[in-house]
Design brief:
Blueprint lengths: L2 H14 L2 H21 L6 H17 L1 H14 L3 E5 L2 H15 L3 E4 L3 H5 L2 H7 L3 E4 L2 H9 L15 H12 L7 H18 L2 E4 L3 E3 L4 E6 L3 H7 L3 E7 L3 E2 L5 H13 L6 E5 L13 E7 L3 H6 L14 H4 L4 H4 L10 H7 L8 H4 L11 H5 L6 H14 L5 H14 L2 H4 L3 H11 L1 H4 L13 H6 L4
Parallel strand pairs: 1-10, 2-3, 2-4, 4-7, 5-8, 7-10
Antiparallel strand pairs: 5-6, 6-9
Helix pairs in contact: 2-12, 16-19
Length: 459
């Protein structure tokens, strides 16, 4: 058993049987499902909208090289700078070079999962640069020293009492401070840092080929402050985030908002087309967009996996997955959790395939992820594909392979199937009780098998 799988099983055991953890997730997920059900009513024909979005993303991926070149040409024409990063080291090197050129000491950062993918915070901290998360949820988990728990809601696993206690310990705020008071404190801290920051870093929800623009979607306003107040803005965006036209936003923005948070549209929807122009009064003096591949081209080239690159990172599949709702986000130990994380993590260059393929086994294959995806990605089919690839490459744990061989041998041997109950129960206790788990009682074999009862005419 590889180390990642062992850690996953250990964390799953802890979270699945934590009543407090389950209670918090149930509460938060319940609010989400109520809001989404209302938000979906804005669509006259939701299924048609989902299929149209899927078709647009399919056409985009098929024409991605040309669209990326069109985007680069139009973005650079307005003074923007595009950096192509093949993998994480190239992205990190590009960012480090900009930091050195600008003699950066303070960086503010808006919420972005791709920065988790390239381990940005750790990179900057190792260089002695202060990096501050400006999304409230991201700020909370950064203070706590944790990774984001959820693609959209980074601190979903924490109660308001947890956060009050954390802030009291770290910042000496009142131990019983209200959410409003804690938010006001964070706002005060961040406003000061926004004006001091040398560089602002963000992700990007969409890229627009026809206008050479990047779209940033958020609810708190921190993204706008991050991308406009510092003199330099760096956006790290996966190449799959492309859309052909700005006109596509009238479909994708409502889908992202509804499936992400249950809103008709998010509060702040910003289109950035480069640095501040001569006639503009605000904005960064320089704007870089780092286009990250990191295995995405290989995924797009695989006909079985290509659909995974249609994802708009709404988090809906996480919120509807019975496994995620049981074990939570940190258990996945990957920048991307839930069904979409289980699908793409083995293929992105964030480790070897075998380091993350066990995530595809953490699924009931109920299809809720596919059913709830705003762009109709066949997630459960790709989970099966990962499993079949794992089997074909002989990557399953040796103990498991041995067990299934023994099971197959027994199932194909009538004399072994009809062996005395005592011997079968003994074998089960010796070899299966540990796998079955301490919290469950291993079933006992009956005195007679169905085959024996059939022959005696008792069934």
């Amino acid at each position: 058993m590889n180390k990642n799988l062992a850690t996953f099983l250990e964390k799953s055991e802890e979270k699945a049987f934590s009543k407090e953890h389950r209670k918090r997730l149930k509460f938060n997920m319940g609010k989400y499902h109520t809001k989404v059900a209302i938000g979906k009513q804005q669509f006259q024909n939701l299924e048609q909208a989902r299929q149209l979005a899927k078709n647009i993303k399919a056409q985009t991926i098929n024409n991605l090289p040309a669209l990326l070149e069109e985007f680069e040409a139009k973005f650079t024409a307005r003074g923007g700078k595009v950096i192509w990063a093949e993998d994480i080291p190239e992205a990190q090197a590009a960012i480090s070079k900009i930091m050195e050129e600008k003699a950066a000491k303070v960086v503010v950062k808006s919420k972005s999962m791709i920065t988790e993918e390239i381990q940005l915070n750790q990179l900057l901290e190792n260089q002695g640069i202060e990096v501050l998360e400006t999304d409230l949820g991201e700020f909370i988990v950064q203070v706590k020293g944790e990774a984001p728990y959820h693609i959209v809601t980074p601190a979903m696993h924490l109660s308001k009492e947890d956060i009050a206690e954390l802030f009291h310990e770290k910042f000496q705020t009142a131990p019983d401070a209200s959410p409003e008071a804690l938010t006001a404190y964070v706002r005060q801290v961040l406003r000061e840092r926004f004006t001091q920051a040398d560089i602002g870093i963000s992700g990007g929800n969409f890229l627009l080929a026809d206008t050479g623009s990047m779209v940033l979607v958020e609810n708190e306003g921190n993204g706008r402050l991050t991308t406009t107040l510092p003199k330099t803005h760096i956006a790290i965006v996966g190449i799959e985030k492309m859309l052909p036209s700005i006109e596509d936003l009238d479909l994708f923005l409502p889908l992202l908002a509804t499936f992400g948070t249950g809103q008709n549209t998010t509060v702040y929807n910003t289109i950035l087309s480069g640095p501040k122009q001569a006639h503009e009064v605000d904005g960064p003096e320089e704007m870089y967009i780092i286009l990250l591949d990191n295995g995405r081209s290989d995924v797009m080239a695989d006909e079985h996996m290509r659909e995974s690159m249609y994802c708009i990172r709404c988090g809906s599949c996480l919120n509807n997955c019975p496994v995620y709702q049981t074990i939570g986000g940190h258990t996945y130990d990957s920048p991307y959790s839930g069904p979409i994380g289980a699908v793409i993590s083995p293929h992105l260059k964030i480790g070897e395939f075998e380091d993350n393929v066990h995530l595809s086994q953490a699924s009931s294959l109920c299809g809720s992820c596919t059913e709830s995806c705003p762009v109709n990605i066949n997630l459960h089919q790709m989970l099966l594909y990962n499993r079949s690839y794992e089997e074909a490459e002989n990557l399953r744990p040796k103990e498991e392979q041995l067990m299934w061989r023994a099971w197959r041998t027994a199932m194909l041997n009538r004399s072994m199937m009809n062996a005395p109950r005592f011997s079968k129960n003994l074998v089960g206790n010796l070899f299966l009780s540990k796998l079955w788990g301490e919290r469950r009682e291993l079933p006992k074999f009956p005195k007679h098998t169905f085959n024996q009862l059939w022959k005696k005419g008792k069934v």
